[in-house]
C-alpha cells in the first residue's frame, strides 16, 4: 500500500498575506501535519504561487523543506511557468509510479485565463502515456475541475472541455480516479465509474469551510483506493 498526499492552491506570495489570510503560516501548519504521517509522495496540484513571482517559489521551497518524500508539482492558472520551472524543475512531472499505480498529469492551464482547456496536444499526450503505461491502476491529475461542483463555485471557471477528457479516459479502464484543485473546496463525485476528487486549498476555501486541508490517498496493490480529506 502506498500513501499519496495531495495539497493544492497554496497561493504563496512575497508577502505573507493574500486573499485575507496568512498563506505562509497556513501552509507551514499543513506541512507540519504531513511530516507526522507516513508519506510516499507529495503532489501539489497547481497555484503554488499567488502572483507567480520568482521569490514566491523560493519561499515555497523553504516551507516544503521538512518534507522527506519525493514532491511532484504541476502548474495552475496563477503560476508563472518560467519562474516555477526555475525553482521546481526537478519536481515537474508527466507521470510517476507508486507501487501498482501510476499518476499522470495533464496540463489544463490557458495563458491569461482562469478557466482551463485541454489542447489536442495535451489530450494526445495523455492517450500516449495511458497506452504505454505498465501500471495496473492509473490516477489522472490536473488543475481544473472536470465536473459541476454543485456548490458556490462558478463552474464557468472550471475545465471548458471535460467531455474530451472523458472520451480519452473511457478507453482505459485502468484509470480509477481524477483529482484536481482550483475550486478551493473538498468534494467527491462519481462519473462514468470514475472517482472525481477535489482537493481543498492549503490557504483558504472559497465556500463556507473555514479550515484548511489536504487530501490523503491510500493506494492498495489490489486497486482499492481510500481517499479522505484531512482538515486543520
Ligand atoms: Zn487557487
Task: Write down the overall mean pLDDT.
Answer: 98
Describe the main β-sheet briefly: 6 strands, mixed
Number of strands: 13
Would you identify the CATH H-level superfamily?
Metallo-dependent phosphatases
Structural class: alpha/beta
Main sheet strand line-up: 6-7-8-9-11-10
- Separation of termini? 25 Å
Query: Which consecutive residue ranges, at least 5 long each, have pLDDT under 50?
Result: none
Characterization of this structure:
- The protein is of the alpha/beta class and 232 residues long.
- It has one domain: 4-Layer Sandwich (Purple Acid Phosphatase, chain A, domain 2), CATH 3.60.21.10.
- Helices cover 22% and strands 28% of the residues.
- It is built from five helices and 13 strands.
- The protein has helices spanning 23-34, 54-63, 81-88, 120-132, 162-169, and strands spanning 2-7, 17-18, 21-22, 41-45, 70-74, 95-98, 101-105, 137-141, 175-180, 187-191, 194-198, 213-219, 225-231.
- The strands form three sheets. A six-stranded mixed sheet has the order 6-7-8-9-11-10, covered by helices on one side.
- Helix 2 packs parallel to helix 3.
- The mean pLDDT is 98.
Walk me through the topology.
Layout: E1 2-7, E2 17-18, E3 21-22, H1 23-34, E4 41-45, H2 54-63, E5 70-74, H3 81-88, E6 95-98, E7 101-105, H4 120-132, E8 137-141, H5 162-169, E9 175-180, E10 187-191, E11 194-198, E12 213-219, E13 225-231
Parallel strand pairs: 1-4, 4-5, 7-8, 8-9, 9-11
Antiparallel strand pairs: 1-12, 2-3, 6-7, 10-11, 12-13
The protein binds zinc ion.
Amino acid at each position: 500500500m502506498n500513501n499519496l498526499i495531495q495539497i493544492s492552491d497554496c497561493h504563496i506570495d512575497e508577502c505573507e498575506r493574500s486573499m485575507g489570510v496568512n498563506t505562509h503560516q497556513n501552509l507551514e501548519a499543513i506541512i507540519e501535519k504531513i511530516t507526522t504521517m507516513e508519506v510516499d509522495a507529495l503532489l501539489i496540484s497547481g497555484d503554488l504561487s499567488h502572483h507567480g513571482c520568482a521569490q514566491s517559489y523560493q519561499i515555497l521551497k523553504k516551507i516544503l523543506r521538512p518534507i522527506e518524500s519525493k514532491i511532484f508539482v504541476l502548474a495552475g492558472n496563477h503560476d508563472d511557468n518560467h519562474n516555477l520551472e526555475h525553482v521546481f524543475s526537478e519536481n515537474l512531472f508527466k507521470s510517476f509510479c507508486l507501487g501498482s499505480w501510476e499518476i499522470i498529469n495533464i496540463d489544463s492551464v490557458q495563458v491569461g485565463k482562469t478557466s482551463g482547456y485541454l489542447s489536442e496536444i495535451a489530450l494526445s499526450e495523455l492517450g500516449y502515456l495511458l497506452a504505454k503505461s505498465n501500471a495496473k491502476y492509473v490516477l489522472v491529475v490536473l488543475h481544473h475541475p472536470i465536473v459541476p461542483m454543485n456548490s458556490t463555485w462558478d463552474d464557468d471557471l472550471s475545465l471548458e472541455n471535460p467531455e474530451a477528457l472523458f472520451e480519452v479516459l473511457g478507453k482505459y479502464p485502468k484509470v480509477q480516479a481524477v483529482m484536481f484543485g482550483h475550486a478551493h473546496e473538498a468534494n467527491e463525485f462519481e462519473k462514468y465509474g470514475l472517482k472525481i476528487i477535489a482537493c481543498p486549498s492549503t490557504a483558504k476555501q472559497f465556500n463556507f469551510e473555514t479550515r484548511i486541508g489536504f487530501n490523503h490517498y491510500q493506494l492498495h496493490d489490489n486497486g482499492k483506493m481510500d481517499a479522505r480529506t484531512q482538515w486543520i
